[in-house]
Design brief:
One of its GO terms (molecular function) is ATP binding. This is ATP-binding cassette domain-containing protein. Pfam families: ABC_tran. Keywords: ATP-binding, Nucleotide-binding, Transport. The chain is an alpha/beta fold. It has 2 domains: 187 residues, Rossmann fold, CATH 3.40.50; 67 residues, no CATH class. It has 9 helices and 11 strands. The longest helix is centred in the C-terminal third of the chain and has 17 residues. The radius of gyration is 19 Å and the shape is globular. The structure holds adenosine-5'-triphosphate. The site of adenosine-5'-triphosphate has 13 residues, from helix 1.
Length: 272
């Protein structure tokens, strides 16, 4: 993969779950080095899109390429690919009976044969990167929500993945902790040379650190452009989403109604 190859590319992708189409006609290309915000209301299919990137969900149609290869279905090849993808899951997924340092060490112990002293040094470096070196011996229950999220972030970074995926990284955090986490996401992206995909409905906290925004609603990409373009968009769907209004062209029921005319024809391609 050359530097010019997009780190993530979805081509004419359709994603089905439970026998129902959740997302269709997804075209999205993420260049290296960028922070991309994937926004959308609850139930719009953000987690479904992530599942396709990590190979948890195979596309019903189209191609999903990550790190220069089509996401494989064979288990071994998929595990190999996943080593290059750091995922910060909703919640933290920290093991409560392990210290912060032990949590960060988990992926290193599972996926490398490095000696304990090297792992300990790498763990200290990762905790330092998220500003928590002093919390190495603390248990998750002793940490604030924001600190615990940063430990989870350090763990996601443990194997030096070139691609980071954040699934609702701000859930349950207060505005100050949210600001700290988003600044960290941006800073780590730039200093470590990562590419970051942030899936969230926290628009106003995320846009300031994003290079590019994609909005999904009603089963498709309905906006793809810069944060500034998003904020000045006059598209009724985008406006409704940004203002959090219950009434408008976005359907908030579980099943996207593809036959509805609100979307047909005016969904811009998600190529960035
Ligand atoms: N495993 C599944 N089986 C069947 N349907 C599913 C499954 N997972 C999700 N869905 C459906 O797919 C749609 C999109 O769900 P998804 O979780 O991707 O949305 P989301 O945008 O991530 O929502 P939230 O912001 O609430 O997490 C929803 O209608 C949901 O009910």
């Amino acid at each position: 993969m050359t530097d010019a190859t997009p780190i993530v590319r979805l081509t004419d992708v359709r994603l089905d779950r439970g026998g129902r189409t959740v997302l269709r006609d997804i075209n999205l290309s993420v260049p290296r080095g960028q922070v991309i915000a994937v926004l959308g209301p609850s139930g719009s299919g953000k987690s479904t899109l992530l599942a396709a990137l990590t190979g948890e969900l195979a596309p019903a149609a189209g191609t999903v390429e990550v790190l220069g290869q089509v996401v494989p279905q064979a288990k071994r090849a998929l595990l190999e690919l996943r080593k290059g993808i750091g995922v910060l899951l909703q919640g933290n997924g920290l093991l409560t009976d392990l210290t912060a340092a032990e949590n960060v060490a988990l992926p290193l112990r599972a996926h490398t044969d490095l000696p304990a002293a090297v792992i300990a040094r790498l763990v200290r470096m990762k905790l330092h990167a998220v500003g928590l070196r002093a919390a190495a011996d603390a248990f998750p229950r002793e940490l604030s929500g924001g600190m615990a999220r940063r430990v989870a972030l350090a763990r996601a970074l443990a194997l030096d993945p070139p691609l980071m995926i954040y699934d609702e990284p701000l859930t349950g955090l207060d505005p100050i902790a949210s600001g700290v986490v988003m600044d960290l996401v941006r800073r780590l992206n730039d200093t470590l040379g990562l590419t970051s995909i942030i899936v969230t409905h926290h628009v106003h906290e995320t846009l300031p650190v994003a290079d590019h925004a994609v909005v999904i609603a009603n089963g498709a990409i309905v906006f793809s452009g810069s944060p500034a373009e998003l904020e000045t968009s006059t598209d009724p769907l985008v406006r409704q989403f940004l203002r959090g209004e219950p009434d408008g062209p976005i359907h908030f029921d579980a099943a996207p109604r593809f036959a509805d005319s609100a979307l047909t024809g005016n969904a811009p391609a998600g190529v960035i």
